[in-house]
Amino acid sequence: MTQLTYAWGATPGEDYDALVAPFRPIFAEIAKEATRRDHERDLPHAAIQRLKEAGFGAVRLPREQGGRGASLPQFFSVLIELSEADSNVTQALRAHFGFTEDILNSKSPERRATWFERIARGEIVGSAWSEVGAGAGLDRFSTEVMEKDGKLFLNGAKYYTTGSLFADWIDVGASNSAGEGVAIAVRRDADGVEVIDDWDGFGQVLTASGTATFRDVAVLPDQVIVDDERFKYGAAFYQLVHLATLAGIGRAITNDVARAVAERKRTYTHAAASRSSQDPQVLQVVGRIRAAAYASGAIVLQAANSLERAFEAHFAGSPEAEEVANALAELETAQAQTVVSDLILDASTLLFDALGASATKKPAGLDRHWRNARTLASHNPRIYKHRIIGDFAVNGTPPPYQWRIGASAG
Known about the structure:
- The protein is α+β, with helices and mostly antiparallel strands.
- It folds into three domains: 16-124, Butyryl-Coa Dehydrogenase, subunit A, domain 1 (Orthogonal Bundle); 128-229, Butyryl-CoA Dehydrogenase, subunit A, domain 2 (Beta Barrel); 234-395, Up-down Bundle (Butyryl-CoA Dehydrogenase, subunit A, domain 3).
- It is 48% helix and 11% strand.
- It has 13 helices and eight strands.
- The protein has helices at residues 16-20, 24-32, 34-40, 45-53, 72-85, 87-92, 94-105, 109-120, 234-263, 280-314, 319-350, 367-377, 382-395; strands spanning 125-128, 144-148, 151-158, 169-175, 181-187, 193-196, 211-219, 224-226.
- The strands form two sheets. A four-stranded mixed beta sheet has the order 1-4-5-8, with helices on one face.
- Helix 7 packs antiparallel against helix 9 (234-263) and helix 11 runs antiparallel to helix 12 (367-377).
- The protein is globular and about 80 Å long.
C-alpha cells in the first residue's frame, strides 16, 4: 500500500516508497504498542534502538556517506508516517535531525566527515538548550564552558532535554568566557553528565524531555562551535518537525476513530441509522477529521519545499538569495503552524463526537491524541506567529530566525 492508495496524496519523489520501505515494518511495530506505552509510561527505548539499527537517523545523509539521500520534503513525509505510529518517537529524535541538518549545512570538511561517519553508523544526538529558573535569561545561557588549568569544562543544567536519554551525544547550548553563545557536543556517557526523565507534562510523556546536568564535563576545543554559525533555517526546521508530528497525529486519530466507528454496535434511539458505521452524521464527523489530517499533511509538505529551497540556496554562492530563502522558509512555516495546530487540535476533540462515552475510558487511550497535540502546539506560541505574518504582509518586516525563552532583563 502506498500513500496514494490511502488517499493521503502523492508522495514527494518517485523513489519515496523505496526510501521509506525499510522503515514501514518498524513503524507498524511501534504503532502496536503506542497506546500501552503511553498508559504505562514505558519509554520507547526498544523502538528507537530498532530505528537506529535500521539507519533511520541517517535518512538525510547523502547515499555516498551511508545515508538514504532523502530530500527535505521526503524527510518530512517520513516523519509524518512515524508520527502516525507514535508521536513520542518523532519528538525524541527531533534534536538529532536538527543536528544532522546543521552538519549537512556545515562548510567545514572536517566537521562534516566526523559527524557523517558517526551518524551513518547509527549514533544519535539529543538536545540540551532550554533553561529554567532565575538565571535563564534571553541573552545569555547560565550554562557555561570555561577554561581551567588550560582545559575547557562545561557546567550547568538544562530542562526540556528532549531525546537525550536515548542519545549517544548531547548538543548543548552554552555561553563562553567572552559571553558568546556556543554549541557543544558531549557524549551522554561522559563523566559529569546526568540525564533524568522528570518531564511531568500531560502530553508527549515518553520523550524523556527532562533535566540534564553537566558538572565539570571535559570539553575539547573541536567540540565547540559558535552558535551564529549554525544553519539559518534552523527555527523553521525545528518547528516543521512539530507540524509533521501533528500531521501524523491527525492520521492516527483518523485510523482510531474509523476503526472504532466500524466496530461500534451500540447506538441511540434518536440516531440516524441502526449502526454508527451507517449513520450519515457520524460519517460526517469522521470525514471532517480525515480531511483535517489530509490538509495538515499537504501543508507540511508545501512548507518543506521552502526549507529545501533554503538548503539549496546555502550552497548557491549568493548570500542575498540565501537570506531571502531563509526568510521565506520561516514565514511559510509560521503560516503552516497557525493552521495545522488548529486543524489537529480540533480533530483530537471531534473524534469523541463520533463515539460514545465509553471512548473516554483510559484503556482506549484516545485522550492521548489531544494531550500530545496540545503539548506540541504549545511550543513556540502560535499567538506570536500571526503577528509576525501580519507584520510581513503589511510592512514587509522579515521574521526573526532564532528565538529563545527565558527571563527578560526587566
